[in-house]
Amino acid sequence: MKPMKKFSNSFLLFSILSIFLLLFCMILSVSYGAVPVAYHNVINAIKNVGLEEYETLVVATRIPRVVFGVISGAALSISGVMMQAITRNPIADPSILGVNTGASLFVVCGMAFFHISSSYEYIWLAFIGAALTAVLVYGLAACGNGGVTPMKLALAGTATSIALQSMINTIMLPNGQVMDSFRFWQVGNIGAASWDDIKTILPYFMVGFVLSIIVIHPLNAIALGDEMAISLGINVTLTRVLAALAGVLLCASTTALAGPIGFVGLMVPHLVRAIVGPDLKKVIPLSALLGACLLLIADLIGRIFGRPGEIESGIITAFLGAPVFILIIRKVKVQSL
Amino acid sequence: MKYEKTAILDGYRKRNRRYLLVCGAMGFIILGLAIFEMVYGNTVYPISTVIKALMGENIKGASYTIVSIRLPRMSGGLLCGFAFGMAGNIFQKLLRNPLASPDIIGVTSGSSVAAVYCILVLHLSGSIVSIIAMLSGLLVSAIIYWLAQSGPYGFSNSRLILTGIGAQAFLNALVSWLLLKAAQYDVPNALRWLSGSLNNVNLSEIPRLLFVTATVSLFLSVFYKHLEIIELGEHHAITLGLNKNAIRITFILGALILIAFATSISGPIASVAFLSGPIANKLAGEGKSNMLSSGLTGSILVMASDMAAQYAFPARYPVGVLTGILGAPYLIYLLLSYNRKGVQ
Fold first, then answer.
1. N or C, which end of chain B is more exposed by having fewer CB within 10 Å?
2. A167 part of contact set with chain B, CB < 8 Å
3. The pTM is what?
4. Is A130 domain-assigned?
5. Cα B156 from Cα B100, distance rounded (Å)
């Protein structure tokens, strides 16, 4: 009983620490930016008073961005946790798997052929595109013997990405207007988020989050191996489908509104597992918290280094995430590649 | 014994004949494509006019179109295709993996980033861009190689490929960022760097490209036998007394130079490096180094796709978009058969 208790104490400690970190990031992210503001402006903006003052108004426009950043950071990292758990594979992430490109392709089709421009419709298109791509890539990687190795998964993802990217180019090129809006959408960014976006994404996030909590227990069992899970009385296929649904829903809703933001789902779960171990009961909430922190930090870095403009957060996460990906590759043994 | 020996020799001669035949046929196809590309366009000129214009005779209207627009486009496609095809084949043979082409493992992105930076931020042009792109391609591949072999479990080809994929994600983020910052008014240039295009090839760039492609490919052709041996596996290479590291470095350097020069002129034309080697293998026979035949295949791919991309569709596309689409089904087929074999 004793070691069990010690473990949950450290989990509690890390949770509290990450909550504080998240609050700290949120405050920083509200108060820093292209326009420097005084402290009382921040307070006023949060209280929603004194909006006639210019600085306060600036802060007020940053608030939806921060809220959106928290939601999408959490969504992306839970989605990464789900994908890694289903595939039992350390490098599964929406960007490596090509799921983001699939979502992009469908959004571009929507823009070009159906003249869709509302974020509500983007979500559904992105969701369908992401789901189809995830199934395709996983199917490609699962062919043949040896199971789904990181190598096969990464190659299938990259190959599919290349293929889908050229389709995107084909649709986009003859259509100047689509190209212009897509060029900016293609680089993930939370800077343009509004309260409407948050209202749109929230229900999908909640559904995905609840789904991922429902499958925690059976997914933990699947981590021991399919046979073990079946002998524990778990419906492996149903669990996988639900978890995949949660993962795709979470990443597709974020991608639809903010554009593809890669590597958050790769970095955060790895860090969290290194701290609290593989139990999903702990990994999921902590990943959500730290994922939100990471995206806010990436956004802040982009604002600080990109002055007078800003560097999009999708670019910053790729800068941070690609080295982490390479580090993971270095640590994996050859046999399991 | 004697019978066996003649049988082996016969087979050898037969394969050589086939190789020469295929290369010859490809040469004719390229010649045909080149003539077609010079003659056909919005205005169709007779061959005699084209020859006169190329000889330097000033024909009103035709001279400009032929010498300044069609000639650089044709020769750019020919040379870039050759460079991409040959370099891709070298990578695939050295790493003994059909998926290990430079556009998948991040080498092309390394050159691309440098070229984009030089052109859009430093406003450079000409051979300095190619040289910087080449150095950056070299540096990136050295880093990828070092990262892949210095880990706790040592080098493996799969680790190299995966590291390359990671590096590519990083470099592509860099390219997107550079494009977003600098390209609002310069979209055609941006596209050249996203998927490869022959639209902006300049006649002044051609001699340099020709010189580099010809020198490097001739130099590498001298060592073609070593490449065939390395393809048999490292153990065989060592047994046959090959200094495999020296050979590997020579070939990688040569291939990188080819890629970097071609990339700095046309941008990364998608899938050509990746498709040429396997097509050449199918046509000219496996077991050969296929250096010449894969280069020629690359030229055919680029020239034919460029013509199709310009005239076969209602809108004009850059060549890279079409080759990218050509590459996609093959890539998926390759993944399926590769996985079925269970090769790691």
1. N
2. yes
3. 0.79
4. yes
5. 13
Q: What is the pLDDT of residue B188?
A: 58
Q: Find where tokens 């690359």 sit.
A: B298
A205 in any annotated domain? yes
Note down the domain range covering A136.
71-331
Question: Is A309 a member of any domain?
Answer: yes
End-to-end CA distance of chain B, in Å?
38
In tens, the pLDDT along B27-78 reads: 999 999 998 888 887 778 888 888 888 887 777 777 888 888 888 999 999 9
Picking from B266, B248, B274, B231, the residue whose alpha carbon sits closest to that of residue B86 is B274
- Output the DSSP codes for B185-240: T-HHHHHHHHH--STT--GGGHHHHHHHHHHHHHHHHHTHHHHHHHHT-HHHHHHT
Domain B2-341 sits in CATH 3.30.230.10 = no
Q: Out of B166, B320, B336, name the one closest to residue A322 (CB).
A: B166
Q: Is A311 on the interface with B (CB under 8 A)?
A: yes
Q: What is the pLDDT of residue B38?
A: 86
Q: Do A184 and B173 touch (CB under 8 A)?
A: no
Contact B22, B295 (CB under 8 A): no
Among A85-94, A238-247, B214-223, the least confident range: A85-94
Beta-carbon contacts below 8 Å between A and B = 166
Give the per-residue pLDDT at A295: 92
Give the residue extent of every domain in chain B: 2-341
Q: Do A169 and B156 touch (CB under 8 A)?
A: no
What is the distance in angstroms between the Cα of A35 and the nearest Cα belonging to chain B? 20
Q: What is the CATH number of the domain that holds A116?
A: 1.10.3470.10
Q: Is residue A46 classed exposed, middle or buried when 0-12, 13-18 and 19+ CB atoms within 10 A define those classes?
A: middle
Number of domains in chain A: 1
Contacts of B173 in chain A (CB under 8 A): 314-315, 318-319, 322
pLDDT grade for B303, boundaries at 50, 70 and 90: very high
